[in-house]
Design brief:
The chain is of the alpha+beta class. The chain has one domain. 17% of the residues lie in helices and 23% in strands. It is built from two helices and five strands. Strands 1, 2, 3, 4 and 5 form a five-stranded mixed sheet that branches. A hairpin with a 4-residue loop joins strand 1 and strand 2. It is globular. It starts with a helix and ends in a 25-residue tail after the last strand.
Length: 128
């Protein structure tokens, strides 16, 4: 019984720590909504290109902000890959997405470093 009590408190603590609020950022095309956690603001699953084989380019920003806002609160799908019995991510051929993380800092810090991370996976598996 003691283990169950301890487990329930650990689960409660994890849930409370991961609660995030939605935050909006105004852009020229509309408002992009992300998630604010304790230390960062996350904009997830932002499509940066579209697979449009042999067709003229499109204005992707106008398509994303169709309703004058875009909710960037969940990851985009992974590119098609061999699945593992342990983890089977959502996959799609349209898999060109960015995840942007911004630290929450006081306004007097105007310049921040930019960190670009390209995930590993040995060109076999993994996604952003």
């Amino acid at each position: 019984m003691t283990h169950l009590w301890l487990l329930s408190h650990i689960v409660f603590f994890i849930i409370i720590r991961t609660i995030s609020t939605t935050i909006g950022l105004r852009t020229q095309k509309g408002i992009i909504y992300g998630r604010q956690t304790q230390h960062t603001i996350e904009y997830l699953g932002i499509q940066y290109a579209k697979i449009i084989r042999w067709k003229p380019p499109i204005d992707l920003a106008s398509e994303l902000f169709r309703n004058t806002s875009f909710h960037a609160t969940s990851f985009g799908p992974c590119c098609p890959q061999a699945t593992s019995p342990i983890y089977i991510p959502k996959q799609d051929e349209q898999c060109l997405y960015l995840n942007i993380y911004k630290p929450i800092v006081p306004l007097n810090h105007s310049l921040l470093p930019v960190f670009v991370w390209i995930h590993g996976g040995g060109h076999r598996r993994g996604c952003s």
